[in-house]
Amino acid sequence: MKNRLRILRAERNWSQGELSLRLGVSRQAINAIETEKHDPSLDLAFKMSQLFELPIEQIFNPQN
Amino acid sequence: MTVIDNLSPNRPVTSQSVKRNLIGAVIGGAFGFGLIELMGRLGIRFKGMPAMDLVAIVIVIEFFGFALVLAYLSADRKRLASTIECEGTPLPASDEEVRDFRLQAAVLALAGLMMLIPIVSTQRIQGHAGRGLALFLATVTLFAIQTLLNIRLWRNSDEFARRTLLIVAAVTFSISQGLLFLTGAAERLQLIRTVSNWNLCIAMMALYLSVSVVTGLRFRSYH
Q1: N or C, where is chain B less crowded by C-beta within 10 Å?
Q2: What crossing angle do the helices spanning B159-188 and B197-219 adopt, rounded to 10°?
């Protein structure tokens, strides 16, 4: 699924490692989501939404 | 300049990484040769060995090789972090990452050892029923330890690692059950001779290892 995770992370100057610590998942998971090889669970998607203070549809876009 | 322009690109394939891979291939080749030499000294005769035992030895070498690579990576936190993270200068690997890579290395090394025991021992247990039982009990103990380590790895894994593990398990099961059924049917129809459990087990391990490597490369997962 297309997402803006990499951009949102860069806006905050976070590395994949820093973001993974904040979300409680591995760096491999972050990399896989950014490269669209893994769609996060609903639980993880909500954690991202809370962390970036954005609605889920502004992070993920299933249409594209 | 937009934010996206400031993103560090995923590391490109450089001459340095090609050099690193070549060095890895040479070390891997030397390791495989050394292990085969060691097996020869342990009394394993490759000449006349059943084809599936030779396949098993290749799998054992791969298990030990992967275990060695993971142990090497986990010995240096920066090296490990740089392997896991694909861009920029990553934070050094955490205690949990080091622990999981070492756990994975131990699981692979135990798998190699368990597969090696029956091959190494076949010629040594002739006429010694007690030795066979002792080696089997040792194998059961190793299997129990490996199972515990696998459970720990699963518990430590996040959703992504669990997904890749489940994909490997599902693909391996799907192909294995098909092959097992077709082999069984061919055997009942007297088209082929009876295939031993050991040969079926080796075929499944070879399949599992191949699926695991392809999935690992596809998803950049080291589990």
Answers
A1: N
A2: 150
ipTM of the complex in this document? 0.90
Q: Which of B54, B56, B58, B35 is nearest to B45 (CA)?
A: B54
Per-residue pLDDT of chain A (64 residues; tens, 9 = 90+): 899 999 999 999 999 999 999 999 999 999 999 999 999 999 999 999 999 999 999 999 877 5
Pairing mode of beta strands A2-3, A60-61 = antiparallel
Please give the biggest Cα pair distance in chain B.
78
| Structure tokens that stand for B185 in this block | 């049917």
For tokens 């135990």, the residue is: B110
How far separated are the first and last CA of chain A, in Å rounded?
8
The beta-carbon neighbor of B4 closest among A7, A21, A33 is: A7
Query: Hey, is the C-beta of B180 within 8 angstroms of any chain A C-beta?
Result: no
Confidence (pTM): 0.81
Residue A17 has its nearest CB partner, among B85, B219, B220, at B85
What residue has token string 């694909």? B86
In degrees and rounded to multiples of 5, residue A61 shows phi and psi of -135, 100
CA atoms within 13 A on the CB side of A19: 27
B161 touches chain A (CB under 8 A): yes
Dihedral of CA atoms A5, A6, A10, A11 in degrees, nearest 10, equals -40
C-alpha dist (Å) from residue B17 to A30, A46, B12, B131: 23, 37, 9, 48
User: In this predicted model, what pLDDT tens digit does every residue of B120-167 receive, in sequence order?
Assistant: 887 677 777 788 899 999 999 999 999 999 999 999 999 999 999 999
Q: Chain A: residue nearest B7 by CA?
A: A10
Closest approach of chain A CAs to the CA of B52, in angstroms?
35
